[in-house]
């Protein structure tokens, strides 16, 4: 029963009040290598020069996370399907009882791979930049068709899918929201929007500096705000959009620079695990920690800086839920319990 995840998360939040932290959710970057060169992503600049852990080393780290109380495992990259052992990692995650998801560019997974892992995944996230002409422009020629095929295969295997879509200028101008509304309904998937993060990990060029590759993709504030309002309106009409009002309010306050620095639970109730076995508070945090055991690394993670530039913008949902935001908790319930058992 999925309710046990909610109870465990509640208990870990209570323990946090008394000073004990739990890595409830782990975002695992299995590789920094990627087969695509999306125009806003400087991933090659932050490709790790260190070696990637072997399958057995990864499994051992996952076992340690399980003993520390982890309940959810998110797999990301680079492109995770570049790892030959990705099916084994996914299956191991399920064997440990984790809520398991993967975010992929949707161009590499074969039909048999998807069929093989579908029963071990709670859901699959695939990135899309909206209509074919925009997706192919940003992600590369032929990418849209491959992603659609991946979604179709996943749905045939009864695997829930979320499309991760960035609110780029091109996407909004091409009436991307209307496209994604129709597309999501037709394909039987959900859609999650994310504003572009202008600084941080994706450029690999420091913590605060805006990334020159990303800036041209960014819509002006008014255009972005209109799109945010439209997401809520379309959601109220029944379009399967994940983003809710607290999320929209948060992004607007961030953009207006009126957001009070919120409490960020990165490094306390969730963390990032990298391909070389190191841990980070979040993907923004410059410090990589690698000690003898996962427990020691986790306990050594620094918390939120007083001047964190991201203001937890990439973890809005978790942080609001852990800060007892009622709508976010209810949406968290619906989303978590909504995945198949
Ligand atoms: C880094 S990718 C890794 C997984 C996979 N390669 C993919 O593209 O889905 C994870 C997500 O980050 C998003 N992303 C990349 N650059 C971003 C940025 N500057 N701001 C926000 N999200 C970004 C991608 O669109 C993708 O949905
Ligand atoms: S967004 Fe994903 S697919 Fe695109 S270049 Fe970056 S890591 Fe690769
Ligand atoms: S506020 Fe952002 S950068 Fe700072 S610890 Fe939280 S997620 Fe990381």
Any overview of this molecule?
This protein is of the alpha/beta class and 341 residues long. It has one domain (2-14, 23-337): Aldolase class I (TIM Barrel, Alpha-Beta Barrel). Helix content is 41%, strand content 11%. The chain contains 13 helices and eight strands. It has helices at residues 3-17, 55-68, 86-95, 111-117, 132-139, 143-156, 169-173, 176-187, 221-236, 245-255, 294-300, 316-322, 326-338, and strands at residues 25-29, 72-76, 99-104, 123-128, 161-166, 190-194, 270-273, 279-280. An eight-stranded mixed β-sheet has the order 6-5-4-3-2-1-7-8, covered by helices on one side. β1, α2 and β2 form a beta-alpha-beta unit. α9 runs antiparallel to α10 (245-255). S-adenosylmethionine binds at residues 34, 40-41, 76-79, 103-105, 127, 164, 166, 194, 196-197, 202, 214.
Strand content: 5-15%
CATH H-level name... which superfamily?
A: Aldolase class I
Order of helices and strands: HEHEHEHEHHEHHEHHEEHHH
Helix content: 40-55%
- How many separate helices? 13
What is the mean predicted local confidence, pLDDT?
89
Strand order of the largest sheet: 6-5-4-3-2-1-7-8
Q: Which ligands does the model contain, each kind named once?
A: S-adenosylmethionine, iron/sulfur cluster
**Radius of gyration, whole Å:** 19 Å
Strand elements, count: 8
Briefly, what CATH class?
Answer: Alpha Beta
In angstroms, what separates the terminal alpha carbons?
7 Å
Broad shape: globular
What CATH architecture label applies?
Alpha-Beta Barrel
CATH topology: TIM Barrel
| Total tally of structural domains | 1
Structural class, please? Answer: alpha/beta
């Amino acid at each position: 029963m999925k309710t046990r995840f909610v109870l465990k998360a509640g208990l870990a939040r209570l323990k946090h009040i008394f000073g004990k932290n739990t890595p409830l959710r782990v975002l695992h970057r299995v590789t920094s290598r990627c087969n695509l060169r999306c125009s806003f992503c400087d991933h090659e600049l932050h490709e790790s020069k260190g070696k990637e852990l072997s399958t057995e080393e990864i499994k051992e780290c996952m076992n340690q996370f399980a003993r520390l109380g982890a309940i959810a495992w998110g797999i990301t990259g680079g492109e995770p399907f570049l790892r030959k052992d990705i099916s084994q990692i996914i299956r191991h995650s399920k064997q440990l009882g984790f809520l398991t998801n993967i975010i992929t560019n949707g161009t590499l997974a074969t039909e048999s791979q998807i069929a093989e892992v579908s029963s071990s995944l709670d859901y699959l996230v695939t990135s899309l930049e909206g209509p074919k002409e925009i997706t192919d422009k940003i992600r590369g020629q032929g990418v849209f068709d491959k992603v659609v095929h991946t979604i179709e295969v996943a749905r045939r295997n009864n695997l829930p899918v979320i499309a991760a879509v960035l609110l780029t200028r091109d996407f909004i101008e091409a009436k991307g929201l209307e496209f994604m509304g129709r597309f999501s309904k037709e394909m039987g998937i959900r859609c999650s929007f994310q504003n572009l993060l202008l600084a941080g990990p994706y450029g690999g060029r420091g913590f605060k500096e805006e990334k020159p590759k990303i800036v041209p993709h960014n819509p002006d504030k008014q255009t972005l705000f209109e799109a945010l309002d439209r997401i809520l309106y379309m959601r109220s009409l029944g379009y399967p959009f994940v983003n809710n009002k607290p999320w929209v309010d948060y992004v607007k306050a961030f953009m207006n620079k009126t957001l009070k620095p919120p409490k960020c639970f990165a490094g306390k109730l969730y963390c990032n695990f990298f391909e070389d076995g190191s841990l980070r508070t979040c993907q923004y945090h410059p410090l990589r920690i690698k000690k003898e055991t996962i427990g020691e690394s986790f306990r050594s993670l620094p918390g939120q800086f007083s001047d964190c530039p991201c203001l937890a913008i990439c973890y809005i949902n978790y942080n609001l839920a852990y800060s007892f935001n009622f709508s976010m908790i209810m949406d968290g319930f619906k989303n978590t319990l909504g995945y198949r058992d």
